[in-house]
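Quick question about two entries, pasted in order.
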Amino acid sequence: MSASGFRPVFHPAGHDHALRHALQDLRAGRWHEMARLLQETADTGGWDGWTRRTQILATVAAGTDVVHAWRAERPGSTAAEVMLGRVAVERAVRAHRAGHGHAPALRAEASTACREAAACAPADPVPWIGLLALAALDAGHQPAEHRVPPPVPGLPPAPWALLAEAERRDPYNREAHHRMLQFLYGRGEGPLSEAVTYAHWAASVAPRGSALHALPLHVRVERYRRDRGHERALDLHWVAEDAVREARRAMDAWFLFCAVPEASQLDLNHLAHALSGALLFTDAARVFEALGPYYTAVPWAHRTPRPADRALAEEVFLRARARSLTG
């Protein structure tokens, strides 16, 4: 806790109180509030909230059988079918990261679930986003579907057709582009030049107010994570001319036009991190104020000697916040 008594809070729902209630219901083994929330989300007609809420719900539902119970009781529910795909992908991703022997079987199961959801909900981008997430687990990138020629020169072969399917349903979908970024990260521990090119290309074609303007901030953190050495003056990474330019662009082209309560907490934390690192304290203060009490361990954890230590990440966040609000 800081000297002022402020303490940051990590909660996946952030400012989304309706999602918070659904998560509480889900943790108690009930699906009704989740179903009600997703019906309400679908009725608003926007894919941003649908994509974000289904992703966060799946992170909790993946450890339960609640979605299966939902579909068993409501076999005609399209939302339940989409959530089954979400849960299957989340389980496959976790198994892959943990190196479990059954990870390939879970990937195949998740792919089937996503394609069934795509057939059930043909207008929904989420099943295609799920297939993009699974593509990022394919270390060898063997399937032809994952080696499609790029839409513009300078980018590598990748699952562009899957991205196009998601984009056809929801242009500039935030999660779809982040899933593609994860695919490019997985191409090796190299200098990330492909990911840098991709992030800047995606941001350059995105409209004002799009979260894709924050993509370069994520890549810069990943570059820092891979290149850092504790003996170096690492703070110089964030005041370089291109770093300042990326931070300003995300502020001016995205933050000033977005619906902040509905924005990704990760994006907001990356922007606050980039602006404070670039010594743009007035702008950073606006982002910290928009965040309220909520924070995410990444990117702050990568500014510590032990990224797995959440307490250290919290300290870095608090120092940056205090310096921005008083600077």
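Here is the second entry:
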Amino acid sequence: MSDTPARLLKLLTLLQTGRERTGTELADRLGVSPRTVRRDIDRLRGLGYPVDAALGAIGGYRLASGTAMPPLLLDDEEAVAIAVGLHAAAGGTLADVAETSVRALAKLEQVLPARLRDRVTALQEATVPLYGLLTGGGDAPVTDPAVLTALATACRRRERVRFAYAAADGAPSKRHAEPYRLVSADRRWYLVAYDLDRADWRTFRADRIGAPRATGARCVPDRRPPTPDAAAFVAESIVSHRARYRALVTLCTPLEDAARRLPAGTGLLEPLTPGSCLLRTGGDALDWLAYRLGFLGVPFEVHEPPELIAYLRDLGTRLVDASYGTPEPRGQEP
């Protein structure tokens, strides 16, 4: 590779992977001599890149942390991911982080090529953040950035899409839908769309979507989900999906404390006052809902459903009665 600037960029890309590479390996990858590699390493150091070198027969080069941040080389998917992440942080609740994210996003978008700027814009316009949702513990599912980009573009252009979908039990299916919005929540992505085959609005996990393809057919212009707010629609779908009872509860503790006390998958938290928050949750059994709330260790008030309110009153009466002593068996005089 005789073009020095292009060779330096490729060399930097190889070093940014984090692993140590020998001079011979770098020379083979670049198509130059080990001596040229050594000169190029010196050039990178002169530009401010801290390249460490290990001596010896098996020594090599690696990019180390420096005192200043030199320019980074990002591939297309990395640049899009960073831009989307900064956009989400810019709309967050932490003022310092939000302000810094806005500045960083402006710098990044200024240098993005047109093809990437369009992808970032489509994702930003099609995505709605959902805060306070606890969807589950463990590692976040891996979502293909290409899938998100294709869905966001279809949302932006109001085009129908076809895609493969895997249900929670792994059962495969083919879907034909009108995409509406993407919703990001708790390290997960969801697609709100009208399922044309089932004639109903649905929420799809983006990590379970495969090979989305725009058909070119336009979506029905005035079709909107039952809840115009896509984030609220996803929250309702996740929290109360197939639940027999849907509960609305005020927790007398700050939202941050409630989030620490509640197990993942419990529901959606919304701030009310600095010292209280609203919990939307659901379940099929009243006793399970009652125990979940009781073991939080904070005062609370149930607004609905009435069945849960009645159950808690009856349970409270029985617990108070039990606290006065052991009840006598039925049919015997005290």
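Reply: The CA atoms of residues 142 and 207 lie 6 Å apart. Residues 134-138 have pLDDT under 50 and may be disordered. Hope that helps.
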